[in-house]
Amino acid sequence: MFPLTTVLLEAGHATLTPVWFLLIAVLWVGFFFLEGFDFGVAMLLPILGKDDRKRRVMINTIGPVWDGNEVWLLTAGGAMFAAFPGWYATLFSGLYLPLLLVLLGLILRGVSFEYRSKRKAPQWRNAHDWMAIIGSFLPSLVLGVGFANFVKGLTVAGDPPLVTTGFWSLFSPFALLGGVLFVVLFAAHGAIFIALKTKGDVHEEAKNLGTKLAYASAALLAVWAIWLNLAYAPDNPAAKVVTWITALLAAAAVAGAGFFSSKDSEGKAFILTGIGIVAMVSTMFVKMYGNLGFISADAPGLDMWSASSSPYTLKIMTIAAAVFVPIVLAYQAWSYWVFRKRLSTDNLPVEKDEAIPVGS
Questions:
Q1: pLDDT in tens, 291-345
Q2: Over the chain, what HEC string results?
Q3: Which residues contact 301 (CB under 8 A, 6 or more apart)?
Q4: How far apart are CA 220 and CA 215, in angstroms?
Q5: Which of the four, 82, 84, 91, 249, has the lowest number of CB atoms within 10 Å?
Q6: Can you identify the CATH homologous superfamily of domain 9-340?
Q7: Average pLDDT over residues 241-254
Q8: Distance CA 305, CA 21 (A)
Q9: Is the distance from CB of 167 to CB of 100 less than 8 angstroms?
């Protein structure tokens, strides 16, 4: 067994709880980094996909990987359920409607990608394209609003603790900024990914749009970073310094992505939009450390330690994570390597009677 795993298994509740909070943060960061670009690709279908062949190329860039990217969300939700049942229960009971919208969006995306190519009728494909667009826009917007509210803090009261923040109170100016930021940043991430994975006309159009969206995202990130740190900074002085650094790093990285995209360096641009997403989400989890994004209106409230599972459960989860996470990471890295080549409309076969599957 790995030495680090042995140390963790010998650790107590006070050690394993922060470790699992960190692991869940990593899962959410991975989800937004990977799913962010295929959300963006789908949202850009009506802008870059001027005809069916261009839309097919765009969908094919994410065809082999989009469902694997969604696994990160399932794993993050499962880890929250097992490691922090109090967090999971409070979150899913208090925010049932927003989470239902996320689920419906993901269902629409999955149906669209799987069934779009089953018929050649323009009406059929257009309907499925709009399912992909809406199914990518909704989760991006709702998750952006949701995480902005975690930064602000959702009020909980009672035992067991329940969210008392009203539904319409979720749509504060800061929360709406978070929603718009997620949509624009994921669109930039997706446009640069398309430019990275294509050639020809699709490449040029995606590069130009990605440059503009990256600069717009950087401006939104700068506003978000300043607003967060002035109005909703952590109480801990060290954490305040970290959130300033990571939030401003996010804005600077995405601005750099715009610069490199304009210079035909899509690889560097994609890495920088990814760094921007990682830094942005990391900032949120630094703010959520300890309180899990909740504000207690009365005792006993809800915090990271009271919401977590027993030490034995956390130890069993640590063993499972040590075994299976490296396998999943290796498989996903292999799949990206296999499908690394660029695509263009010239690579698409002329359609016959049979359907062309997504990812072909």
A1: 999 988 776 678 898 899 988 899 899 888 888 888 888 988 898 888 888 776 6
A2: CCHHHHHHHHCCHHHHHHHHHHHHHHHHHHHHHHHHHHHHHHHCHHHHCCCHHHHHHHHHHHCCCHHHHHHHHHHHHHHHHHHCHHHHHHHHHHCHHHHHHHHHHHHHHHHHHHHHHHCCCHHHHHHHHHHHHHHHHHHHHHHHHHHHHHHHCEEEECCCCEECCCCHHHCCHHHHHHHHHHHHHHHHHHHHHHHHHECCHHHHHHHHHHHHHHHHHHHHHHHHHHHHHHHCCCCCHHHHHHHHHHHHHHHHHHHHHHHHHHCCCHHHHHHHHHHHHHHHHHHHHHHHCCCCCEEECCCCCCCHHHHCCCHHHHHHHHHHHHHHHHHHHHHHHHHHHHCCCCECHHHCCCCCCCCCCCCC
A3: 156, 157, 161, 294
A4: 9
A5: 82
A6: Formate dehydrogenase/DMSO reductase domain (1.20.1630.10)
A7: 97
A8: 10
A9: no
AA letter at 318 = T
140, two tokens: 């991006």
Higher pLDDT, 177 or 53: 177
Of the listed ranges 112-116, 192-196, 240-244, 278-282, the one predicted with least confidence: 112-116
Q: Dig out the tokens for 187 from the structure.
A: 């669109």
pLDDT tens readout for residues 20-77: 999 999 999 999 999 999 999 999 999 998 888 889 999 999 988 898 899 899 999 9
130-148: burial string, b at 16+ Cβ within 10 Å, e else: ebbbbbbbbbbbbbbbbbb
Instruction: Identify residue 236 by its one-letter amino acid code.
Output: N
27 Cβ contact list (under 8 Å, min separation 6)? 72, 75, 76, 79
Give me the amino acid identity at 235.
D
